[in-house]
From TrEMBL:
This is diguanylate cyclase. Residues 175-305 form the GGDEF domain. It catalyses: 2 GTP = 3',3'-c-di-GMP + 2 diphosphate. Pfam families: GGDEF (PF00990). Its EC number is 2.7.7.65. It is an enzyme of class 2 (transferase). Transmembrane segments: none annotated. It comes from Halomonas tibetensis. InterPro entries: Diguanylate_Cyclase, GGDEF_dom, Nucleotide_cyclase, PAS-like_dom_sf, Rev_trsase/Diguanyl_cyclase.
Length: 321
């Protein structure tokens, strides 16, 4: 094997500095700089030796060097991979990765290696931007997967998932939950008269108004077709009645050519003996909805748990006009 001669520091593809004055914070003088420092970063070689290190660094990097790099070198003998910023003679800033250690023969000196991190910094920023775009797209996909496109409300899949969680919490903390299934009366006739575009416009407008009626803790969803579902926690019968009245009122305010829009509502309310399953509560509300339809529409009915049937408690409706 051929023996190599000791390499010249100018042969190394990184900046090499030797700095003195470790007992003089902020005034550490540069005693040596290899050619890479001048060629890569634009510092004149003749002007570096004897000048303070702080003249090469940005103000923030000077502070980092004094309060972190130097104490680490003094305590541990070395400090690795610190990102600092050079203030170049042209006024631009250049990120560098710095490794530092005490000089092997003169412990009052510090040896520094400087690697240009401009490309790494650019790649890092590109990775950050790529990550941001991916997270943004993932958020959009998540929104699309859980939201009904026409109304902006939750879709059936997200409704089932969130409702199950809400009912589990209600069972744990012994609080009540109400499910209201809302169906637009005579919607097929509206579609036949106004066309599907006109029907979609009514659905979108009603969905918007229903969303405004929900509290932050409520679940408001489009179940499918002309059917909507509210799942509302901590509701007794009186407050459920008030909510149903508001839903009838906001439905009547949706502009429909030649008629007043009405809805029928079926309501299921948890009972102290319930197992708090969403499927059970929805089934009760759905039965009450069909009973409300059969009773003439434009009304709300509760499911009577004690009678295991739909109760005859028709909610007093506000005038439609």
């Amino acid at each position: 094997m051929r023996a190599l001669l000791s390499p010249d520091p100018d042969d190394f593809p990184c900046g090499c500095l030797v700095v003195s004055g470790i007992d003089e914070p902020g005034n550490r003088l540069i005693l040596y700089a290899n050619h890479y420092v001048s060629e890569q970063f634009g510092f004149a070689a003749e002007g570096l030796v004897g000048s303070p290190l702080s003249g090469m660094l940005s103000r923030a990097s000077t502070v980092i060097f004094d309060v972190y790099v130097l104490p680490t070198v003094l305590h541990e003998g070395r400090c690795s991979e610190v990102l600092l910023e050079l203030q170049t003679p042209t006024g631009s800033k250049c990120p560098v990765v710095v490794n530092a250690r005490r000089h092997s023969t003169d412990q009052t000196l510090i040896v520094l290696s400087l690697f240009d991190a401009t490309q790494r910094d650019t790649l890092y920023q590109e990775l950050v931007e790529t990550r941001r775009l991916l997270e943004e797209k993932a958020s959009i996909l998540q929104h699309l997967s859980s939201t009904d496109e026409l109304t902006g409300l939750l879709n059936r899949r997200e409704l089932n998932k969130r409702a199950a969680i809400m009912l589990a919490e209600a069972r744990r903390y012994e609080t009540s939950v109400a499910v209201l299934v809302v169906d637009i009366d005579h919607f097929k006739e509206l579609n036949d008269t106004l066309g599907h575009a006109g029907g979609d416009k009514i659905l979108a407008e009603l969905g918007k108004r229903f969303r405004e009626q929900g509290r932050a803790t409520d679940i408001v969803a489009r179940y499918g077709g002309e059917e909507f579902v509210f799942v509302v926690p901590k509701m007794d019968e009186f407050r459920v009645r008030q909510l149903a009245q508001r839903l009838h009122k906001v439905a009547s305010e949706v502009p429909v050519p030649g008629k007043v829009l009405t809805v029928s509502i079926g309501i299921g309310l948890t009972h102290s003996r319930d197992d708090f399953l969403y499927e059970t509560l929805f089934m009760r509300a759905d039965k009450a909805l069909y009973a409300a339809k059969a009773a003439g529409r434009d009304r709300s009915l509760f499911f009577d748990v004690d009678a295991q049937d739909v109760g005859e408690r028709v909610i007093d409706l506000l005038p439609s006009s």
